[in-house]
Amino acid sequence: MLGAGVFVAYAPAAAAAGSWLLLSLALAAVIAYANATSSARLAALYPESGGTYVYGRERLGPFWGYLAGWAFVAGKLSSCAAMAWAIGVYAWPEHARIVAIGAVGLVTAISYRGITRSAQVTRVIVVVVVAVLVTVAALLIVSAAAADQPASGAVEAGPFGVLTGAGFLFFAFAGYARIATLGEEVVEPERTIPRAIPIALGIVVALYALIAVALLRSRGAEVIAADPAPLAAAAAATGWVWAEPVVRVTAVLAAFGSLLGMLLGVSRTTLAMARDR
Q: What phi and psi values does residue 182 have, to the nearest 5 degrees?
């Protein structure tokens, strides 16, 4: 879940929801929780690789299973392309396509080495991303307190704007279902997956809420909405010269982690469908 979404979703969400950004985040979290809970329960019932394909096959029949499986694969391949492109744009904008292709090749090689190696890489990425996000949030809150004035720039938003903002922020929660697609490669999946998904989601919600409060307190909704990379811009505004480069590097790392997780999910779902042919 801690992918590139957290680095890009706040800008369009703030443009839509304005100062009601936290309400949009709460709505997105509720929807993500409902989705995550159903995924966890289905994963406990059918602890095998394949995720959506397996659930559709077992509950509705083979045709609907394949339809759900191919829809999942098509959607995640598009997401993989978006994550690879984000890596290229953040790492080397002048040669984004070359970097994106290289990123896909590197992630494929890591996935080929097996789920253990992939999990180790993902664990390191998550630790780094969490540490940087917490540090940046603390810097923003401290800088806002030092300024001793509320952030200016209110954006008016109605109910539709709040819902639109929730839609953008929901993208930042994407990833909990990937745990379910790896059922066969998880120790005691019937017990582990139903516990792992809600715990992971709860940690992410708390972290995203901290970042949202820090951004609103230090920058204001209008300023957040005006920059496509609000966290990088906010880090630059703190006055610490190292903050913005660190955030940008972390965004690349987060996108790499997302790409790794998505590719793993696609490969396991494709494997599950191929087994039944």
A: -105, 30
